[in-house]
Amino acid sequence: MKVYKGYLIALKTNISTVILYCSIYLLVALSMVYLSSGEKSSGSYSQQRLSIGVADRDNSLWSETLLEYLKQYHDVTVMEDDMSALAEAVYSSEIVYAVLIPEDFLNACILGEETVGTLTESGSQWEYYVNGRIDSFVNTARVLLAGGYSSEEAAQHVLETAEVQPQVKLESTREDAAVYNVFRFMPYLYFSILCFTLGLIQKEYQNTDIRKRLLASSLTLKSQNIQSLLAFFTIGFFSWILCEGIGMITCASEFLDNPYQWLILLNGFTIMLAALSAAYFVGSMAKTDAAVNGMANVLSLGFCFLGGIFVPLELLTGAIRKIGQFFPTYWYAQNISILCFNDEMTASLKATVFQGLLIQILFSLACTSVALAIGKARRQEDS
């Protein structure tokens, strides 16, 4: 077991990297738990009413209807048609949004293509919120008028639609925000520790002199590969115990209350295997320490950004989301979200979770196979 022991001895020289990343992760995890303590939801939700100023340049049936429509959602103040006064009101936070209804509102906006004028602070988040209400009003009125209703009838029906309130029922009240926030970032810890440490060790074993000395020994090539993979798995297994242990300690009570503890740990084990295979690939490809560091950074950061670790999956756009599905971190992030925010594991959710676990394992096997093929090609070049 000379090769196996060699990996373990070489790990001692890189133990400082492990300690560094674990310390950073521990601080981040503790801060996440602290911040999550204020995220408990009461289960009660209400829409937010904003202070809006409206300048009516039309004074018609439809401009008054829009005014009444907005009053059902927001606190509306009728203001003079003075742009400087509106801008001053927005700047002084007297109102957060100003709406300017143009002349001939019916033909210009409802039947035409002109939009309602608005004024708010640059980059305000409320722009989309209020504009969505106005667009809903215009579209509803346009459909009613096209359907043959008179202006009076259409205006009345538009106001009636605003009175309809949806009944929302939460399918799950489970919100393990602390567990989710702590364990969501676990893949970055695995990829950083394993790629930087084992990548450097594996790179050294790809050195021509070391390979020739091993070939001259009594060890067969098969034995060398088995010992190498066994050493990787041993180091990965202990890193899994260390990293998952840090996660469990930082949010102990929430983790123990979660009914899917073992699935969370299994999900961490499969992403650890994916990180191990990535480290083996990095060490087999790189020829210098700088190359190992570069590849490790690209893999760890790239996988985590595109796979929903640093940016939640819900915020990823369609194209980025499709690209992320090629990475094991995507399936890890999807699984951890399911395991933290569902009271009951339905058949479809179980299938999704186990599919994610299987894809992570298949990624590990594929990446390891490619690394072994690269190693074999290099040995043939040297011979």
Structure report:
The protein has 383 residues and is mostly helical. 69% of the residues lie in helices and 5% in strands. It contains 17 helices and four strands. The protein has a four-stranded mixed sheet, with helices on both faces. Helix 9 (186-205) packs parallel to helix 13, helix 13 (261-285) runs antiparallel to helix 14 (289-306) and helix 16 (328-340) packs antiparallel against helix 17. The protein is elongated, with a radius of gyration of 30 Å. It comes from Candidatus Fusicatenibacter intestinigallinarum.
> How many whole angstroms does the radius of gyration measure?
30 Å
Q: Describe the oligomeric state of these chains in a short phrase.
A: single chain
Order of helices and strands: HHEHEHEHEHHHHHHHHHHHH
> Which stretches are low in confidence, meaning pLDDT under 50 for 5 or more residues running?
39-45
Q: How far apart lie the N and C ends?
A: 25 Å
DSSP summary, beta strand count: 4
Shape: elongated
DSSP helix fraction: 55-70%
Pairing-aware structural class of the strands and helices? mainly alpha
Largest sheet: 4 strands, mixed
Task: Tell me, rounded to a whole number, the average pLDDT.
Answer: 81
Main sheet: strand order: 2-1-3-4
Q: How much of the sequence is in beta strands?
A: under 5%
- Total helices: the number is 17
Subcellular location: Cell membrane
GO molecular function, one term: ABC-type transporter activity
GO cellular component, one term: plasma membrane
Keywords: Cell membrane, Membrane, Transmembrane, Transmembrane helix
